[in-house]
Amino acid sequence: MMRVALVAHIRHPIAPPFAGGMEAHSYHLARGLAARGHDVTLFASGDSAVPEGVRLHPVVATHYDRDFPWHRFHGTDALTAHLDAAYARAGRDILGGGYDIVHNNSLHRFMPRLAVAHGVPMVTSLHVPPFDALRRAVHGGIAPWTRFTVTSRTQLDRWWPGAPPPEASVLPNGIDLAEWPFKASGHGGAVWAGRITPTKGPHLAVRAARRAGLPLTLFGTIEHRDYFETDVRPYLGGDIRYGGHLRGADLAREIGAASVLLFTPLWDEPFGLAAIEAMATGVPVACTDRGAVREVVGECGRFAPSDDVAALAHAAREAIGLPRADCRARVEALFSQDVMLDRAEALYADARAAAPVAAPSRAFRPFELQVAPPVALSA
After folding, report:
1. Which of 81, 97, 197, 347 is deepest in the core (most CB within 10 A)?
2. Nearest alpha carbon to residue 204 among 300, 299, 69, 315
3. Which pLDDT value is given to residue 215?
4. Shared domain check, 166 and 197
5. Does residue 70 belong to any structural domain of this protein?
6. Does residue 243 share a domain with residue 209?
7. Following DSSP, what letter does each residue of 219-259 receive, concatenated?
């Protein structure tokens, strides 16, 4: 049994119904570790709803997207200062908490630096393509007691072009298969699930469904209201509809009843959690060919260029004919929660075994991690 500090991203609460894949990943990782007997503390926003057996340590009182909406504040000094102050406090609390291992899902540059400076065994999971501030912290955060994971081989190449260091490896996301029951047949229509925002491409899904003559229901939180009103709503009506933002069991039932998932990322998708959730229920995937999508979906999907609605419509019609049992089998073999947890525990053991016997001072060093609001700490 280990005392685990799991540090989450704080853009959204870690609570169902999940805003996106990162929130779902942190929640289910915490729950799975606790079920295996580990003592888990989740560092997240105070409005999170932690699984049974997991303690919540608030990093901020409420998730930051409420007061600093990402599409307005991304890259601003105000949001940077807010996040720096929050993770500086979290750093102090981690150093004083007596944890055996830290699993860092924060996407913030302070955590890898804390691990190196203070000899803290840490696994950092990178759920996004590299951006400058985090890339510098990660590349400077290599130590015998640190491990870095990405969700796909595609992302490993993005973070470390050429040969990655031995401390970096692929840890795919995993899901609880019991929460995504297999259904042997669908109703003939399509489904789309995710955050409704331009980079997720629901506007492509509605246009492709119209072109293919397929009924389509969209599910997910409307993150970017103006985009929804201008680029998605005009295509709604008849058998193309928005079904709301559903909790797990209801969403699994709706997805499993479909005959194809339209998965339409318009960025370099690091993984594709919505795709494996659908595949677990037996639903094949028609998707834009971006990032790690082809690597994750494999033979359970058909692919189209991200700027070709006609090709996506054709992919959807073709995907409907793929064997549903093969989709479930792929997730069972590669993307189950048990596969993920086994690998995570092995990484924890490796990092702990390599930690310095005489660790660097655990006293908090403000000059390394702290920033005085409202001035952002330079990366």
Report:
1. 347
2. 315
3. 98
4. no
5. yes
6. yes
7. ES-BS-HHHIIIIIGGG-BTTEEE-----HHHHHHHHHT-S
Which CATH number do you get for residue 8? 3.40.50.2000
Pairing assessment for the beta strands 168-170 and 190-193 based on DSSP bridges: unpaired
In the DSSP assignment, the letter for residue 80 is H
Our CA angle for 62, 68, 70, nearest 5°, is: 115
Q: Please indicate, yes or no, if residue 255 is contained in any of the structural domains.
A: yes
**Residue 334 identity (one-letter amino acid):** L
Asked whether residue 261 falls in the same domain as residue 318, the answer is yes
114 falls within a domain:
yes
Residue located via tokens 């680029």: 231
pLDDT, one tens digit per residue, over 280-296 is 999 999 999 999 999 99
Contact 272, 289 (CB under 8 A): no
Domain total for the chain?
Answer: 2
Describe the strand order of the beta sheet including 3-7 as a list of residue ranges. Answer: 54-58, 39-44, 3-7, 101-104, 122-126, 146-150, 168-170
> Is 28 part of a structural domain of the chain?
yes
Rounded CA-CA distance 200/269 in Å is: 9
Residue 150's DSSP bridge partners are 126, 170
Contact 2, 101 (CB under 8 A): yes
Give the pLDDT score at 162: 85
Q: In what helix (H) or strand (E) does residue 332 lie, and over which residues does it extend?
A: helix 324-334
Say how many C-beta atoms besides its own lie within 10 A of residue 233's C-beta. 14
Within this chain, do residues 29 and 154 fall inside the same structural domain, yes or no? Answer: yes
Q: Domain range spanning residue 53?
A: 3-174+337-369
Domain co-membership, 196 together with 301: yes
Q: Helix, strand, coil proportions of the chain in percent (round to 5)?
A: 40, 15, 40
| 75 plus 200 within the same structural domain | no
Give the Cα separation of 299 and 284 in Å (integer): 9
Please tell me the pTM assigned to this model.
0.90
Cα–Cα distance measured from residue 66 to residue 89, given in angstroms and rounded to the nearest whole number: 20
Q: Kindly state whether residues 129 and 39 are assigned to the same domain.
A: yes
**CB neighbour list of residue 196: distance below 8 Å, 6 or more residues apart:** 202, 218, 220, 221, 222, 223, 224, 227, 228, 232
- Residue ranges in the chain whose pLDDT is less than 70: 358-379
